Amino acid sequence: MSSTDRPQAANTIAMLGQAYSLLGFKIVDGVVGAGYPQKPSHSAVFAQIKREGSRLTDLAKGANMTPQSMSELVAELVELGYVERKPDPTDGRAKLIVLTDRGNACIDAAQTTIQGLEDHLTAILGDRGHRQLRTLLTKLLAEG
Fold it and tell me: What tens digit of pLDDT does each residue of 20-71 get?
């Protein structure tokens, strides 16, 4: 069997990407199943927004995307009733993206879903394995 005939083993980067995608879709499925329809791309906002509100530029920077792309996502979430734009009390020229009651409930549903996924990881890896995974990921991300 030549090297071109053997199946290619997934590299670590590909496996991390697959895990990220899989878990992201599971979170969205859990949130949608709890009655909060949205698209997977909306997680870029929900993962960054502070409960007291965030500026669009901060959301975009945290999600590593352009302000224009973030603005489109925010507009969709405004239409769905999850966020609203309000004047920033610290700068009259700026706007804050603020969660509505529905947006806060959506984040609560996501946190419940995430806790279920954390519990599932512990069931698969065991307590020790899950702690080791967190330690390794923390170390990897600290180098970023």
Answer: 999 999 999 999 999 999 999 999 999 999 989 999 999 999 999 999 999 9
Contact 55, 95 (CB under 8 A): yes
Residues sharing a CB contact under 8 Å with residue 37, sequence separation 6 or more, in sequence order: 80
Pairing between strand 83-88 and 54-55?
Answer: unpaired
pTM of the model: 0.82
Q: Residue 120 corresponds to which amino acid?
A: H
Contacts of 85 (CB under 8 A, 6+ apart): 74, 78, 95, 96, 97, 98
User: Where are the alpha helices (H) located in the chain, listed in sequence order?
Assistant: 12-33, 43-46, 56-63, 67-80, 101-142
d(CA 21, CA 28): 11
What does the alpha-carbon distance between residue 120 and residue 68 come to, in Å, rounded to a whole number?
A: 37
- How deeply is 96 buried, as exposed, middle or buried, from its count of CB atoms within 10 A (0-12, 13-18, 19+)? buried
**And the tokens for 120?**
């599932």
From the list 122, 116, 105, the residue with the least C-alpha distance to 27 is 116
